[in-house]
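Exam review. A common question shows you a sequence with its structure tokens and asks you to describe the fold in words. Practice with the pair below. Do the first one on your own.
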Amino acid sequence: MANTTLKKIAQVLDISISTVSRALKNHPDISAATKQKVMELAETLDYEPNEMAVNLRSKNTKVIGVMIPSITNNFYDSFIAAAEEEARKAGYSLMILQSGDDPAAEKENLKLYRKSRVSAVFACLSHETTDVASYYKLKEVDIPVVFFDKVPDDHSFSRICIADEDAAVLAAKALIEKGKKNILAIFGNSQLSITKRRLKAFTDFFEQDKKIKLTVEYARSSSQAEEKTTHQFQSKEKPDAVFCMSDEILTGVMKSFQKLKISLPENCGVIALSDGFFPKLYYPEITYVETSGYQLGKLAFERMLQCLNGDKDPKELFVTPSLVNGGSL
């Protein structure tokens, strides 16, 4: 009987509800004989305690919020898979909400997390979010926040990221080793810290070689990346390689290539920063620097457990990227 209550057990044994409750908790004031009767009947009736009520009383719902821009993004899907695995091991569950890259929706989701009294929150900022005041409200009610991937510049929060500078440098080195001289580099939202870090490391590396022409563009969507690529390849001096800061940009670049009938790597080379799923959908496979959402999820949860166990000091941690060679360079 899934709906069996403490009241039912008390009625059957003709004892008080408080006595049943204390017996189930092995309270020393309850006799061994009573405890045995209560435990045997509870097992017979398949009694299960109301975990939500217990958790609310203890101010620990054992639920962790996960705020992401979109659940359909493979990178965030990998992050969630890793976080859910670790959460289950630690006795937690996840409450996943999407912001849709809308700061207003993000703010409403944070209100819902507060009302639901979640134990903690993982958060990836929306593209347009510049104010993190709503996240401070979570800290004020003792709900730890760990940012991941797209993080604020605010150093008072724990932030878990891919080692963006290292990833950008690995891509730049691969392009130079292949002898590329006219490179189109397409980055994401120029206002995001993740873009700024990757852009600076990438462009700084090419400062060493003045013979290389580097054209930098920005795209906030796959369609924008497609437009920027098409425009560049309609010029007289066409790029001999394209760097894609993300999977979203990669899909736009490849759509443009298909329309323009540009062959890889004969007509142009391509390299991307990627979780690894999309590069394998193309032939030849795209060379990419792996930025693993799964590993990010593992590291983020490790840090979150530390926060939940009392280590509230903000920390910045990084996942190390690696180069995966395909046939696109």
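Now try the second one, then compare your answer with the model answer below.
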Amino acid sequence: MAVPPDRDDQPVREFPSFTADLHALADWLSACGVDTVAMESTGVYGIPLFELLESRGFTVRLVNARHVKNVSGRKSDVLDCQWLQQLMTYGLLSGAFRPTEAICVSHVGPVRHLS
């Protein structure tokens, strides 16, 4: 995760994916004065973080990785998060489609297979 360089002495940090770590990430973003977060769409892996940040009052923009591709060449998570942060700072990111909460609720009950 990256914040603008003037917000923290260590503007790029890595957080594990356990619940306590996601809360620590949200706390850090709050301490840095961040109110809007851009996340690359990573399938189901980003859903817990997305939902946690949203529940903590952040505006979360889910962005399509194809639309924010950096210059071809070396790729790393650090470079990607810094690139997203920079695009966000300049107002160049728009959120991708995200269904409403009612649609996102998982199916409860047995799944029936047709044969």
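Model answer, second protein: Strands lie at 36-40, 59-63. The radius of gyration is 16 Å. Full marks require stating both points clearly.
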